[in-house]
Structures are given as C-alpha cells and as structure tokens.
Automatic annotation (TrEMBL), chain B:
Its main location: membrane. It is a multi-pass membrane protein. GO terms for cellular component: plasma membrane. SMART domains: AAA. This is ABC transporter permease.
Length: 564, 584
C-alpha cells in the first residue's frame, strides 16, 4: 500500500555490507576527495623538503637570503596549493556524506512505512524518530572522514617511505618495521571499541526513550510524590551512560595513544640516529652519507609518515559509531515486511456489493497467542457494522486487520479499498501545522469552502469563528491547543472530506464530552446515509442502535451476529 | 551561498550581540566552575601534551643541526665538542611525555564532561518536576526529548571544545613567542603577532560566520525529529488517506533545510582548517626568514635558527581543533538559551519554606472565588468558582470536557496554583502546606492514564513502592485484570509498552485505577473512571469501588450522571460546571 516499497533485503544484510553499499553510491565524490587528500600530502612533503633545503643552503653552503628568495617564493606557492587542496578535500568528502545520509534516511523511512502502524506500535516512536535522525547523522564521520582517510593512510606513508629510502635506506627499513605493527594493534583495539560502541548506541536510544517516557508522565510522578526518586533515576541513567561511554573511550583513545607513541618514539630515535650519524659516530650503513639536508628532511617527514595513521585512528571511533548506528538501522531494515500468509485482495474482482469479506482469518501476537479468530465476517457495501464485546476481546485487532495494518495468519481477506479508507481511533492523529493542513491530509485539493463545510458538519463552526486566524490557526504537536473532543471532531471533519467509501472507527466516542459525542454520532449517521460502509468498534449504545449489524466478540471470536 | 550568509551575518553581530552571548553562556560557565579543579587539571594535561610536542620537534631540529655543524668541524679536523646526552635525554623525555599525557588528558577530560552531563541532566529533570501542569501539558511532546538530552549534550562542547583548546592554543603562542623572542626578539615579536591574528580569526571569525546557521541547526533537527515521530505515529491515518507521500515530502523538505545549513557550516570549517594550514605555514616561513636574517647578521646560531620554524610548525596541533568548534558555537548558544528559558520559567510550583502541619481528622476542602486563566486560551478556565467538599462526602462535579473539571482537580492537588482566590484545606491555604503532605493524601485518577514504559508491577508500585506482590494481585483482582495478567507469560513483569500501548484502552484504564486503589489515600479524585469499559464491567467495578471508598472523601469528575452505572457509587451531591462557572 506504501507508494515506494523498498526492495526486499537479502537475509545476510550486515551493517558492514550496508555501509559499503551506501559508499558505492557516491564512489566518484569519495575518489575525488582522496585525490585532493593526496595532493595535500604531496604538498606537505615538498614544503618540508624546501624547508630543509633552505636551512642546509644557509648553514652549509653559506647562501645569502637573496639567493634563496626563489626557494621562499616556491615554499609560499606550495603552501598555497596545499591550502586549496585541503579545502577541496573537506568540501568533497562532506558532500558525499550528505548525499549518502539522505539516501540512508529515505531507505529506512521507506521500510518503516512498509512495516505499517501495528508492527511499530510496540516501539517507542521517539526512539525510532531518534534513530532516523541521530543514527543516520552518526554515519557522517564514517563517510566524510574515515573512508577517505583510510585510502590516504595507505598512499601517503608509502610515498614518504620511498622518499626516505632514497635519502637513507636504513631509516626506511626502521619505518617499514614499525608499520605492520600499527594496523595489527589498531585492529585489536578497534574490534573491542566497535562492540562497546554498539552497546553505547543501544544505551543512548534507551536513555532517550526513558527520558521522554518520564517527562510525559511527569504529572503522575508529581501526584505520587515520585519526582525525587525519578530525578535520581534520571541521574543514575545518565551516570550509567557516562560509565558506558568511558569504557568505549578508554579503548578508543588507546588506539590513538599507540600511534602517538610510535610517532613520538620514532621522531626521538631518528633524531638521535641522525645526530650521531652527522657527528660521524655511526660508521656502518648509509649513516656516514647523511647531510644536514637529508637528515632534516627525514626528521620533518617522520611525523608526516605517522600523521595519516594518527588521523585515521582519531576517526576510528567515527567508524565504530557508524557501525553501531548501522547496526541499529540494519536491525530495522531486517525487520521482515508483512508476509502475506493469508490471502488479501484489494481489487474489485468479486461481488461489487461486498465491502469487506473475511474467511477463516486469525491473528496472533508474539508472546500472547491467538488474539483473534479464526473467524468469518462479511460486510456489505453501505452497511454499518458495530463490533462490541469486553475490552481485550479483539475488536481493535479486527479493525487493524481490515485496514491492512496487520495480516491474517490464515484464510482470506477481501477489502474494497479502491478509493482508500478512512480511519479514526481514540487518539485522533493531528500533525503540527494549521487546521487546514490537518484536514487536507485526507483531501489535498479541497478548497477552503469545503474545509469550512466539513468543520461545520463536525460542529466546529463556533470554535473556528473564535479563532482570529481561522483555518490557518496552527496546532501544536499532536493537536496541542484543542481539547480532546475538539481534536476528535477535527478528525471527524477529515472523514467528511475524504472520498473513502469504507470508514473504520475504533471507539470513536470514548472519553468525549456530551457535545462532541453528539456531533460524532450525528456525523457517523450522516456518513452512513451517504452510503459509506462503517465498521465501528464501540461500547456506545447509540452507535449500536444505528448499526445494521451488531457483532459481539469475546476472546477473539465472534459470539453472536445480530442483524437489525 | 557563502556570500548570502555573510550578508545576513553583517546585520546582527555587534558589541551588544557579543555581550548577549556572554550572558547566555555565563550561567553554564558558573556551573562548570563548580568543578574548577578537574577543569584546571584537564587544561594542564592539555598544555603539557602540546608543550611536549613543540619541545620534541624544536629540540630535534636543534640537535640535528648542531650535530651536523659539529660534524663538519670534526671532519675538517677542528677540535669541537658537543654535549649529546642532555639533548638526547630531552628528546626522549618529550616523546614519552607527549604520549602519556595525551592519553590521560583525553580520558580525564571526557570523564569530566560526562560527569557534568549527568549533573545537568538530573538538574534539568528536577526543574521540570517542579513546573506546574500548565507548562508541562503544553510542552509534553518530542521537543522535550531534544531539549533535555541534545541540548545538554551540546553544552558539553563548552569546556572541552570551546574553553580549554583556545586557552591552551593561546598559551602555546605565548610559549613560542617567548622561546623565539629570548633568542631573537624581533622574530619572536613578529611571529607571535601573526599567530595571534590567526588565533583571533579562528575564535571570533569562525564563530561569526557560523553563528546563524549553527544556531538554526538544532531547531531544524528538532523539527525533523518531530515530523518523523509524527509520521510514524500517524502511519495508520496517513496510509488510510493516501497522504503518506505528501507528508513524507514535508519531512524531506525539512531535511533539505538541515543539509543546506550543514553544507554551509562544513564549508566554513573547511575555510578555518585551510587558514590554519596557510597561517601556520606562512608563519613558519616568516620565522625562518627572520631567523635567517639574524643568523646572517651573526646574532643567532645555526641550530637556534632551525629550532624557530620548527617550533612554529608544531603549533598546527594547537590550532587544529579550533575551526570546527567555533564554527558550531551557535549551536551551543542556542542550547544554552533554551535551557536558560526553561530554568527561569515562572510557572514553578513553589514549596512553602516552613510548611504548616496538617490536621488529618476530617479534612475539608474549599475553593474560595478561584479564577484561573491559561495563557493561550481565549476564555478563563475557571471564573470565580467557590465550592467545598466536606469530610467523607462524595461529590460529583459534572460538565463537558473543557468545562474546567480537571482544572479544579489540578488546583486541589497543587499541580496548578490559582491566578486569583485561594484553595484551602481545613482553612489553610494549600500553598502554606508541604507539597508532599498534600499529594500523599490524595489519589487522583487523571483523565488520561499515564503509564510508563515499564512492567505492570513497576507501574503499580509508583503508588506504593513497598507493596508486595500479593497486594498488587489484590488490586488487580478488584479491577478484574488479575485473570488476564495471570495468563501472560511474564505475569506482573510484562512490559506495558510506550504509554501503555501494548494494552487496550480499557486495560490501561483499569491498571490506572488499580494504581489508585494501591495508593489508598483518604481523599480520592476520579476523573471518568470507567472510560473505555463496557457497561457490565463498569457496574461490577463500581460496586467494589463503593466498598473501598467508604470512609474516604471523594470527588468524581463526570460528563454527566448515568443512573445505571453510577447508582452504586453513592454520590451525595452534584455540581455542574459550564465553561468555567458553577451552575447556580
């Protein structure tokens, strides 16, 4: 039913594979970023070489500053080129990351839409919203920083190694020996950090859910004098988060400390080796051939040899964060889409007079067994059916089944949804926006006059007249500003506007004031008179009376079916 | 794109704006001040790391040059001596210090920040818990989540990103200036000045360019999150009406705004990073040029000449963190501003300083000419309402939704204070009594049942933390939920879902009622207790309620009396509210 159902995923969708797939979407930009990064690295090497050359010319050849002005000028030029390449690197990598995040968000949102409302009901909407915002944003560092740096960390040290080998092969061998140790160490450290990071993400999501939950219920906490203990609980949760984070960071920082150690010790060792070589204390290998130029160049390039790897290790937690986020998102993506076990058809392939036909349907919830059925039900077009029975009897589940929010395990479902259907439950759904925006959800092209007429039918004319901005009055999140009855009547007006022939209602009059209730009942009557098909789960006597057929449910089964 | 933002910028950021920025961040700086010692230690570790890095490179350069020059002399047969042990030891010392101090600095500082965050989070919740129902009900949606988690998270950048790094960078500039200046005053002075200009740009200029876009970013993220949550909550309706794709378009539009700003901010911080490379590189060349002049003039030795550009080069590390941090200053500022507004919120319920003792035998409640007006409403919620509730009386307050019944209940439980008039208990103004004492004597079943994402048992125990399982089963029995809970695999430990969504409306209502039964307060307010229950169940429960209520003072809030359903509730008197006024 969703307009864009994403293609189903292989069973083996892993966070890594998903990230790789996303990266390949922006292969070109990422390559361009790496190219810029290589230019930055090369320019740095040239800059260091020029610096050593100038010093050597001044000290050993006794050159004057005038003679060296060209060298200073070229060094300035190289620094300029380096700056431009730096800019290009950052901007391109960022652009790639932006595009990838956009695509990832779309994919996950599409999947959630396809899962449908009932499958999502057990989850924190805020948690899911957070995942779609924060976890998708958490992919940023991986694509904008880690991935390009991964290539640079290979290319640049190798280039430096070649230059150093040309200057002094013994130093090159020393650097080469230190090199394989680094990735091994980092991999060890990285693996631990990754797992911890995943746990931390789960903790952040839980923390967010916990927080919203406690804030939503703060009145109840106040009434039961529980605010103190709830505050302590909030503090404890945050402190727990700190401890989790510290565990991740202790390891994450270790990987960069290892590199720091290699880089520092290498510089120290090289400085001493070069110094002794220059003094003539080292008589073997290439050391006697060292000059101030080659020695200084090696010293200046040594930190640059480790720098790409150090930067990579700083971004290592970006990778771990992205994998943690991807884990959460892939878990959503791997949530199986409704399998159509029972048959379901929306086409008008059978009897025109049948709006809803259920044959041998049943629904089970995990951990709760059969909540509905097996049962049969037929609703004729234009008929009004009331579903009654004790709370928990399966009335809502039956409506959700008809709506297609859940699927039947068995049997066949036939629903005529040629023109869509209308849905209303106890919690009227209102979006943050104007009253008009809310009404146009059902009828995007309705004129203002049509909106006003629908509101009037729902008994909201007085309210509207009292609002200076009329239809453009904006409602807060979930209809803040309206009373429960008014919100329900806005939802009713929406049904009037919708052309849907089938109207599904779940306890539409529960917790309404008299006036609102009367308007809702009148409104439903007029919908029935228009020839629409109504299926209403209700306890209200007036709605039972207006129904042509009353179906009593108990423990998921139809007990009686009475036609008026 | 850049220019367009630039123009917006030039309008608003002058002296007054910077002062405003200061006053917005001041309360948070003060808060940080409470952990002054930790912050100081952290900054010292930071400075130590940087100092070691500068020392390592500068000393190595000096050493190599000195050895090269001595080596040349030795090769020429000149007798020359160079102490190699002190500089050699110095180099090793700097190398180890840099590694160790860096690791501990990062660990220590992150721990500090997360400690601060836990303080702040608990503190903000305390602020919320003290607010009245009017503010809370207005804002109780997903924006809270951001306000309290993301905003506080954003403020972590205050110390670790915005305070310590620029201070340490400034210190490093000073150290390099002194180091250079002690050998060649002119070189030190000129290079120091150049670096200072760069520092000022990185701190002030970057903040200035990024201010608006980064400030907006938080709000945009908020809206995007709000839209997404809405989208997922309303999936049923949106799907039914076929408006899924148009609502999705709105979400994508919000995302576009977000990414437009992000793109701009990314460019601004790229500019900053580019300037660091350019500025430090050019300063290094400048140092070399000036030092070379001094060397040619025989005012400086060769090794010291080499040391100077290398010391400057090491400053790259000191500046590296500044561009991104200051480009995002606006985000920190926006978060601080929102949290400030919340803390200054005037609608806190204020606890009496010296609460008066409460008299427990026969409590009489009274509303004396009470008026209440919600800020955004067109008409007052209550208009000079006077009424009383005698001890052990059962009074029904009737009226349509919005007539003011819930407002009366909220006044009695001090979830709200009246704008005019008084609410008294035994002649004492509620505001003079302890909040805890008032609320512990009242069980109030609110119109909507607030259940927490927790187990059935945990939801019940809110009312009575020490209740044992037997007591929980007893109250579940009274509302006829015991059989249902018993056949659940996890029984009392079954989670109820977000806001009780795993339960049907009727089940949630009964669980709420069971919680009030467990609370067992002498005064009970029941707001439409039987919502969503079928009639026979409502009748059975109301009969049991009648027994339980005997001896208690009871206020029923009902739309209207229903002979059949309410017959067993023993209502003695009924008052009707119509649009905030009592029916005469």
């Amino acid at each position: 039913m969703s307009p864009s159902t994403p293609e189903s995923h292989d069973d083996g969708l892993t966070p890594r594979r998903w990230l790789a797939g996303l990266a390949s979407r922006e292969r070109r930009l990422l390559r361009l970023a790496v190219l810029c990064g290589v230019v930055v690295g090369l320019a740095t090497m040239v800059q260091m070489g020029l610096l050593a050359w100038i010093v050597s010319a001044l000290l050993t050849s006794g050159a004057t500053l005038d003679e060296l002005s060209w060298a200073f000028a070229s060094a300035m030029g190289v620094i300029g080129v380096r700056a431009m390449a730096q800019w290009g690197y950052e901007v391109t990598a960022q652009e790639a990351s932006l595009r990838i995040r956009q695509a990832a968000r779309r994919e996950v949102l599409g999947h959630l839409e396809a899962l449908g409302p009932v499958r999502l009901a057990g989850r924190h909407s805020a948690g899911l919203g957070g995942q779609l915002v924060e976890q998708v944003e958490a992919l940023d560092g991986y694509f904008a920083r880690f991935l390009p740096q991964l290539r640079l960390a290979v290319v640049l040290p190798l280039t430096i190694l070649v230059i150093v080998a040309w200057l002094d092969w013994l130093v090159a061998i020393l650097l080469l020996l230190s090199m394989p140790l680094i990735p091994v160490f980092m991999a060890l450290v990285g693996m631990g950090a990754e797992r911890l990071n995943r746990e931390q993400f789960a903790a952040v999501t839980r923390l967010a859910g916990h927080f919203l939950d406690r804030v939503r219920g703060i009145t109840t906490l106040q009434l039961f004098n529980c605010t103190e203990s709830a505050t302590d609980e909030v503090y404890a949760r945050a402190d727990d988060y700190r401890r989790r984070s510290m565990r991740t960071l202790r390891l994450a920082f270790l990987s960069s400390a290892v590199l720091e150690f290699f880089a520092s010790v290498a510089i120290a060792m090289l400085a001493i080796y070069i110094g002794f070589g220059l003094l003539g204390y080292i008589a073997f290998g290439p050391a006697p051939k060292l000059t101030l130029f080659s020695g200084l160049t090696i010293l200046l390039l040594a930190p640059e040899f480790f720098q790409p790897l150090r930067t990579l290790s700083q971004h290592y937690h970006d990778r771990a964060a992205a994998l943690g986020a991807a884990d959460g998102l892939v878990a959503l993506l791997s949530e199986p889409l409704p399998e159509h076990v029972g048959e379901r058809s929306d086409q008008r392939n059978t009897d025109l007079a049948i709006a809803v036909g259920l044959v041998g349907v049943s629904v089970r919830h995990p951990g709760r067994g059969d909540v509905l059925g097996p049962l049969d039900l037929e609703v004729a077009a234009g008929e009004t059916v009331a579903l009654i029975g004790p709370s928990g009897a399966g009335k809502s589940t039956l409506l959700q089944l008809i709506a297609g929010f859940i699927d039947s395990e068995t049997g066949q479902v036939y629903v005529d949804t040629g023109n869509g259907f209308a849905w209303m439950d106890q919690r009227p759904f209102l979006v943050q926006g104007s009253i008009a925006d809310n009404l146009r959800l059902a009828a995007p092209y309705a004129s203002d006059a049509q909106l006003l007429a629908a509101l009037e039918r729902a008994g909201l004319r007085e309210l509207l007249a009292s609002l200076p901005e009329g239809l453009q009055t904006s409602l807060g999140e979930r209809g803040a500003g309206l009373s429960g009855g008014q919100a329900q009547r806005v939802a009713l007006a929406r049904i009037f506007l919708s052309p849907a022939p089938l109207v599904l209602l779940d306890e539409p009059t529960a917790s309404l004031d008299e006036v609102s209730e009367a308007f809702v009942i009148e409104g439903l009557k007029s919908l029935a008179e228009e020839g629409r098909t109504l299926v209403i789960a209700t306890h209200h006597p007036a709605l039972m009376v207006m129904a042509g057929c009353v179906v009593r449910l108990s423990q998921g089964r139809i007990v009686t079916e009475q036609s008026a | 794109m850049m220019r367009e933002h630039y123009r917006q910028q030039t309008e608003g950021l002058h002296g007054a704006a910077w002062r405003e920025l200061g006053s917005e961040l001041l309360p948070w700086l003060r808060r940080l001040g409470r952990r002054r010692q930790r912050l100081l230690v952290g900054a010292m570790l930071l400075a130590l790391t940087l100092g070691a890095a500068i020392g390592l490179l500068a000393l190595s350069g000096w050493f190599i040059t000195a050895t090269a020059m001595t080596g040349t002399l030795l090769a020429a047969g000149v007798v020359a001596r160079l102490d190699i042990y002190v500089p050699g030891g110095g180099i090793r010392f700097f190398a180890v210090t840099r590694t160790v101090s860096r690791y501990f600095e990062r660990l220590y500082n992150h721990d500090t920040v997360l400690r601060l965050l836990a303080d702040l989070r608990g503190g903000m919740f305390r602020v919320l818990a003290g607010l009245d129902a009017q503010v809370l009900s207005r804002r109780r949606a997903s924006e809270w989540l951001n306000r309290l988690t993301a905003d506080i998270d954003t403020l972590d950048s205050l110390y670790l990103r915005l305070l310590a790094p620029p201070a340490v960078a400034l210190l490093a500039i000073l150290v390099v200036t002194v180091l250079l200046g002690s050998f060649a005053p002119l070189t030190g002075g000129v290079v120091g000045l150049a670096l200072l200009v760069l520092w000022v740009w990185l701190v002030v200029g970057q903040a200035w360019l990024g201010m608006d876009a980064s400030r907006r970013r938080v709000a945009t993220l908020d809206r995007l999150r709000g839209h997404l949550i809405e989208h997922l909550m309303g999936l049923g309706e949106l799907r039914a009406y076929g408006s899924l794709s148009s609502h999705r378009q709105a979400i994508l539009g919000e995302e576009d705004t977000l990414y437009r700003d992000q793109r701009y901010l990314g460019r601004v911080s790229a500019l900053g990073n580019t300037l660091v490379g350019l500025g430090v590189g050019l300063a290094m060349l400048l140092a070399l040029w000036l030092a070379a002049l001094a060397y040619r003039g025989e005012n400086l030795s060769g090794p010291l000449m080499v040391m100077m550009p290398l010391a400057v080069l090491a400053l790259n590390e000191a500046f590296a963190a500044l561009p991104v941090a200051f480009t995002q200053l606006g985000a920190t500022r926006a978060a601080a501003r929102r949290l400030n507004a919340l803390e200054r919120s005037s609608s806190a319920i204020i606890e009496a300083d010296t609460p008066r003792a409460m008299n427990d035998d026969g409590i009489e409640w009274r509303l004396e000419a009470v008026s209440l007006h919600y800020p955004e409403a067109l008409t007052p919620a209550l208009d000079r309402v006077s009424m009383s509730l005698a001890p052990q009386e059962r009074l029904a307050l009737l009226g349509a939704s919005g007539a003011g019944k819930s407002s009366v209940a909220m006044l009695l439980t001090r979830l709200l204070d009246p704008d005019q008039g008084r609410v008294t208990l035994h002649g004492v103004d509620l505001r003079e009594l302890s909040l805890e004492a008032v609320r512990s004597r009242i069980g109030y079943l609110t119109q909507g049942t607030e259940l927490f994402h927790d187990s059935i048992a945990a939801n019940l125990r809110l009312a009575c933390p020490h209740a044992d399982d037997a007591e929980l089963w007893r109250v579940l029995e009274m509302v006829e939920l015991a059989d249902w809970v018993e056949q659940l695999p996890r029984q009392l430990d079954t989670p109820v879902g977000e806001g009780g969504r795993q339960l049907s409306g009727g089940q949630a209502r009964r669980l709420g009622l069971a919680r009030i039964l467990l609370h067992d307060a002498p005064i009970v307010i029941l707001d439409e207790p039987f919502t969503g229950l079928d009639r026979s169940l409502a009748r059975r429960i109301s009969r049991r309620l009648d027994t339980w209520l005997s001896g208690k003072t009871v206020l029923f809030l009902l739309h209207q009396l229903d002979e059949e359903r309410d017959a067993s509730l023993g209502i003695q008197r009924a008052l009707t509210l119509i649009q905030g006024r009592l029916e005469p």
